Amino acid sequence: MNPGLIVIICLLVLSFLGLPIYLALGIGALISLNIADMPLIVLPQKLFGGMNSASLLAIPLFILAGNIMSRTITKKLVDVANAVFGQVRGSLAVVTVAASALFGAISGSGVATASAIGGMMIPAMKGDDYPDHFAAAVSGMAACLGPIIPPSITLIVYANCVTNLSVSKLFIGSALPGIVLAASLIIYCMIYGKRHKLPSHKRMGGKEVLKTFKASIWALLMPVIILGGIFGGIFTASESAAVAVAYALIVSFFIYRDMSLKEFYEVLVDSALGSTTILMLMGLSKVTSYVVTTSGLPQQILTLFRSITDSKIVILLLLNVLFLVIGMLMEANAAIVMMTPLLLPLLTAYGIDPLTFGIMMSFNLCIGLVTPPVGMCLLMTNQTAGANFIKTLKSALPLIAIGVVVLLLVTYAPFMTTWLPSLID
């Protein structure tokens, strides 16, 4: 059997048996190296090479910034979103989407967004007589904005798999799709709120709105500094992550003063555990990429696709279907690590822009955060709401459909991902 195929089968089987993804990947790589009679020294060499990248410094730093923010700054972002949208019907659902977009502009993680924003907004929505399943569905889908709106951990992982691709360009390219998705979800929440007569809140006066913005200005400056710095070319993705951590610490300890040393220690532990898993995954991805590439499996995949069709449009559609299915079954970072080496020859053969493809793949896999059986964000928000999962899934279907429509725009309207990067070049 093809050694590259063995890696993929081992990853799938061991993952479904409950083994951590990075261990499943490492065991699969070791088995394949043995079967292919390749030198085992390849494993430590490629493992080190996979983690020896400056761009990967952004991952632990963005995770740390997101964890600090979830303990302190998040409520300020929610207050601002409520000041802007509080007067419309279904305002708390709209606030959930807006706050998730703001939080995603710092954390880069869907699960962190679901935990931080969903943990605050779901009880608030239930207290305002929102259906619990709708509250869970909105919070789960809004959490997908975390890894879509820059900065995005999944895009950093993808950039590390395609060595000539700039993380900053990927971030800039993903901004417009993220904004379009956020705006679409907000419009849906407004329509749903009006149709189901959800409660609205009293419109704030100008002085009260100004007071809210003034109290939250330090929290609002955080995404502005990060995104402005990246878009303006002031600092790289890794440097922006370091700035995010430094800024979050200063604001939390010296301005808002709402984090204790004990809480900070817990944040450090949580961030270290999350970062270690992803970085081990990245290191082992280089081992599996070496096995897959030398096995000739990518060329066989290319031959298979060419036997089906020569149309770039059809190929892109097939890739979308493939990733939507993969997103239902596998964690996003693991899927990117597994599939990117396989599909790179296909991109070259059909003239598919790697930047657009990376954002398309990341968008697909983010939708997987709300689709079972994995659907981590939807499972988290459903548990927080204490809702019936079938009802939550039914409520999430229109939101998922919106995500798929935006995905098709990303796929077939290249300006969605290339326009902003072209302005900065």
Question: What is the secondary structure topology, with strand pairs?
Answer:
Elements lengths: L2 H14 L4 H15 L6 H10 L6 H14 L2 H12 L5 H17 L2 H18 L4 H12 L1 H4 L4 H9 L5 H29 L10 H26 L5 H19 L5 H35 L1 H12 L3 H18 L2 H19 L3 H14 L8 H10 L3 H24 L2 H10 L1
Helix pairs in contact: 1-2, 1-14, 2-14, 3-14, 4-7, 4-13, 4-14, 5-6, 5-12, 6-7, 6-8, 6-11, 6-12, 7-8, 7-19, 8-19, 8-20, 10-17, 11-18, 11-20, 11-21, 12-13, 14-17, 15-17, 16-18, 17-18, 18-20
Describe this structure in words.
The chain is mainly alpha-helical and 425 residues long. The protein has one domain. Helices cover 80% and strands 0% of the residues. It has 21 helices and no strands. It starts with a helix and ends with a helix.
Number of helices: 21
The number of domains is 1
Any idea what the shape is? globular
Can you summarize the main beta sheet?
none
Q: Which percent band covers the strand fraction? A: under 5%
What is the CA-based Rg, rounded? Answer: 21 Å
Helix content: over 70%
H/E element sequence: HHHHHHHHHHHHHHHHHHHHH
Distance between the termini: 46 Å
Uncertain runs are: none
